[in-house]
Amino acid sequence: MSIDQPYERGVKLWPALAAGAAVLAAGAAVWITLEADFLAYPGWLAAQKADFILGPVLIGLYWLRQRPHSRFGPILICFGFVGALYVLQSSGNKWLFSSGLLWENVVGLAAYVLILTFPTGRLDGLASKLILVAAVVLAVVPSVVIELLLPQVNAGGSISGCSGLCPENALAITSRPALADHLFTIFRYAVIAIALVTAGLLVWRFMRGTPPQRRALAIGAPVALLFLLLQATFHLLALVAPDALELRRVIAWTFAGARAALWYGFLAALVAAQLFAARALQRLVRQSLQRPSHRELEEMLREPLGDPQLRLAFWSPKTRSWLDVDGEHSLEQPTDPRLTLTVIEHSGRPAVAILHDAQLNDDPELLQTAGGIALLSAENADLDAAWNDALRELRDSRARIVRVGDAERRKVERDLHDGLQQRLLAIGIDLALTADVDGEDSELRTRLHEIGHSVDEALHELQSLARGIYPPVLGAYGIAAAFEDIQLPAGRGLTIRANGLGRYAPELESAVYYSCLEAIQNAMKYGGDAVRITVTLREHDGELEFDVSDNGPGFYPSGSNPGTGLQNIRDRLGAVDGRVSIITAPGQGTTVSGAVPVPADKTTPAVARD
Description:
Layout: H1 13-35, H2 42-66, H3 72-84, H4 94-117, H5 126-149, H6 177-208, H7 211-240, H8 245-260, H9 262-288, H10 294-305, E1 311-316, E2 321-323, E3 339-346, E4 349-357, H11 364-437, H12 442-469, H13 472-477, H14 479-484, E5 493-498, H15 506-527, E6 532-540, E7 543-550, H16 564-575, E8 579-584, E9 590-597
Parallel strand pairs: 5-6
Antiparallel strand pairs: 1-2, 1-4, 3-4, 6-7, 7-9, 8-9
């Protein structure tokens, strides 16, 4: 079964020819029947004979269009053209009329073939075959012999009788009325028995069938049961109450209507199956939006398909085999004839397989629905996996960028500390020594001291810059110790609350530290000279959390554009899968809160400072 290469539904030549032939045959049947002046009900019989052709052929064509691999559609089409020869019984020519009488037995036998092969198109089981053999031996053969024994034979159909004498029987070879009457009694009893046995078989199939079979039989079988019971009643009344003419007439007309309704019951069963599949598809699509796992999908498909043993498998290009919903065991072609493996292809390649009850092959709408949903779920799973891989790669890439940036910060800080800072310190010492040695020139000595003082100031600025690039305490002792080294300008207070913190991955520590530092700088920028800032750090539920609160003026979050500082915080925390939120209002201060996940195996105790 291929999802992306469905059955071609365009108009083909042979279905159009079959439909055209059926219309012509029906028109001929109506014309011939209406012209027959010996029939009791020529108008009704003309409509019946036309329906015998058009109904099965057109419904069979529709069945074949919807279920191209089913045999039942061709059987319906064949039945319609078999019924076309039934019109011979309306001919005034004795040879054609007699042939039509014989052909009525073929039409009756074909009706049983329809009933017994519905809905699979197959004559399943020994009972079905025995019923047809019994019908041939006990009903068709006696009927043929009867026609050979009577020079004058009335049409035997329920409403096919003649108003007077029927045309002469051209096939009679002798005249044995008594023997013919005895055979006719045998024929009626045989028809009654065959009809009742067939009805019992339909009931047994319904009781023992799978849910899809019962759904099909629940629509098509009642009409067939009505036809069979009315047929049995029609012949039983002829045997036990031959004088009950009015009752027999009512049963005859009802029987004729039930026989014509057979194929319409089959059509209703097909439409019901399509509607059920559509409802199942709607429900399954809605459930599939919840992104079920492969195992959940398997359980989800079992109910509408009515197969509690249904199993799904997904094609693995790596192992080139079918793997079950757990991705472990390979699924092989079943050896049990009661099971079938239906393969769903996509873009010409196998994608999903459904191991199911073989009887579900006769309900292709549901199989196509299940296959489409399974394929959709598999593709969604692949897309989710690809999306998660891409997201994980992006997250890892951002984390690597943060780590590289922090490593570069540490390198710059070390270079400044070990290189430029030491050289400035050495220059300052040299200047001081030179000023002390050269004591005679007071002006030069003063100048050297001034230069030395400038060098000290540059050294302090350099040290402050180096700590801003990457504080050595952060790498050596962790976040809490790094915050203790922060000194705010006079008038501004900073309170640090950090208890029970350990050491974390460098990228986590730097992300939290610089995010808090960014929030502190924003608070000083907008909070005024007397702003008070509190930094709270804690580890909770596997996350390293922080809050930076100030008593500044606050603002309307919805009415302001986030500055570069807040965006920097979001970027830093996002690189390590963290999050940030801001709570503020005019006159209520501002609190910047954030958290980063801490892997359980990535926490170590903090090292105390000397």
